[in-house]
Amino acid sequence: MRLDQQKINQVNDQTLSEHRESFDHLSKVLGRKDVDANSIIGKLKEFQVAIPSWALGTGGTRFGRFSGGGEPGTLEDKISDVGLLHQLSQSAGSISLHIPWDIPEDVEAIKQLADSYGLLFDAVNSNTFQDQPDQKLSYKFGSLCHVDKAVRQQAIDHNLEVVKYGEALGSKSLTVWLADGSSFPGQLNFKKAFQRTLESLQAIYAGMPSDWKMFVEYKPYEPNFYSTVIQDWGSSHMLADKLGERAFSLVDLGHHLPNTNIEQIVATLMMVGKLGGFHFNDSKYGDDDVTVGSLKPYQLFLIFNELVDGMEDPTSNNPYPAWMIDASHNLKDPLEDLLQSLEAIKIAYAQAMLVDRAALEEARENNDPTLAQEILQAAYRTDVRPLLAQARLQAGGALDPIGTFRRLNVRKELIAARGAKTVSTGL
């Protein structure tokens, strides 16, 4: 589905005067602090977040799943939905595929379709946490760490197959997340499991194109109850470090124990040049995968404060991180949820760019925690939404993406085209 640009402009016109008033006021406030609003807007326009193909339909729990209708049933539909998100937000310029959920049957046609929406293909994702109908060997007791070499080879071959699909589409990175672990004490030899995982990853790494990156994701719990093989950022970094210079840790905001200082992890990984990317979501208890910034917006800001500090550090050798949303939309319209997440991410990014870094560093050097807090919270409490709206307006997007989505009855149109009972493929 493609939105008529004229209709987006017409909706924009309804609030354009109010927006200009808000933007002009904020520009003057920032100008008095020697902050160039246009410079921030330029960076906001460049900042793009990948949308995963599996996040475009209604999620669920082990108790149930309640479709909202009009969900994308094919890869083509999913690309269309990401194109719609990008048209409204001007921030969703790529799609991340999960194989085998989204295997392109006609690669050239899929590439042309994505290009027609102005989309690129972000990291491809392998799946060794589920058994597929035509799969010879089971991953019930692990994949890359399995005691059976044949199972490990099957998982290695799958990852290399995923790389081939990604290479054909123009992707440049592979994300590996493993469910491997144990549910009972004594079930797994920790050292052997980690060593087998490393050897399996080395085989995959050796089979990737020389210009590809590997992102090693970690998670301290689930689906196993006792242990996971890659349980934290330290184990992820150990693997990435041993694999080579094109391997990096990937941080999923939901993959941490309660009260983990994620911003400190970010700073440390960037310091050693091993932060590969992010999966954005939010959580209350565990890997809840709820809307980005809906629960812990200040933590999100603090994370971006470290990200901006690292990205602006001329001595840093950390590559530009890959950004992706990884959330599950159980109650909301998935597209509205993704639009909210995109907004929250860019709000935190814009706020982090407002931090007076020279003053903050001086406060630190003077051991002045009170002033340091004041500096951070002054940036965090600034309403930067007019900057985001101006960036979208300049790029041809919607001043109010969710308001425009609703005024143009997008979900109603999708239900009319796809049906009220459709269920998206994947999770």
TrEMBL record:
GO MF annotations in UniProt: isomerase activity
InterPro entries named in the record: L-rhamnose_isomerase (IPR050337), Xyl_isomerase-like_sf (IPR036237), Xyl_isomerase-like_TIM-brl (IPR013022)
Domain Xylose isomerase-like TIM barrel positions: 104-289
UniProt keyword list: Isomerase, Manganese, Metal-binding
Protein name in UniProt: Sugar isomerase
Organism: Echinicola arenosa
Classification of source organism: Bacteria, Pseudomonadati, Bacteroidota, Cytophagia, Cytophagales
